[in-house]
Amino acid sequence: MRQGSSSPSTIPGSPASCWPKAITKAAGRRHSWPGAEVEALVRRRLGQTEFRAGLLDYWRGSCAVTGIAQPELLRASHIKPWAHCGNDAERLDVYNGFLLTADWDAAFDAGLVSFDTDGVAVFSPALSQAAHTRLGAGRLHADRPLTDKHRQYLAWHATRVFVGRPISSR
To answer: I need a labelling partner for 28 at 20 to 30 A (CA). Which of 41, 75, 149, 155 fits?
Structure first.
């Protein structure tokens, strides 16, 4: 992914630019389900595939926290969950996600961990000591610093998903 101020929908080959073509192609296939259900399922599945591809590119194929670079162990995790996004642009925005290992993804999705504006992990008091020890300290890669767009989504996560005290800016 190129760095700069371009939005993902304007970058050739980005998830947002590839998705409409994939939807059109998949919509032409025959299914036995009602049309609206099929379209919703296809859109969600293709969108998740494109989102993951974008995150793999952005995070250079490794977990944003641990650096693990084995794709089978990595999850495309939305900061603002898919169901709460107002539109497809938010759902596919690479800045609305992190590539995380399964344990970090589960803790993040459950609101047991979030990240402050500097990318340092903030742990919920609801997280068990054993889980906290397993996860370790946690910090997002310095070579892929948080952007203002990441911070906007993280502010949403901090107030609507994170379980615990408010996350303060440094």
So the answer is: 75
- What distance lies between CA 84 and its chain's CA centroid? 13
Note the pLDDT tens digit of each residue in 36-95.
665 655 555 556 889 999 999 999 999 999 999 999 999 999 999 989 999 989 999 999
Both tokens of 169, joined, read 């800016």
The model's pTM is 0.74
Domain ranges for the chain, please list them: 8-160
Please state, in angstroms and rounded to a whole number, the distance separating the CA atoms of residues 29 and 7.
Answer: 31
Q: Where are the alpha helices (DSSP H) in the chain?
A: 15-27, 35-58, 88-92, 102-109, 129-135, 148-160
How far is the C-alpha of 94 from the C-alpha of 53, rounded, in Å? 9
Q: Copy the structure tokens of residue 121.
A: 């992990």
C-alpha pair distances (Å), 163 with each of 30, 38, 59, 110, 115: 43, 35, 26, 8, 12
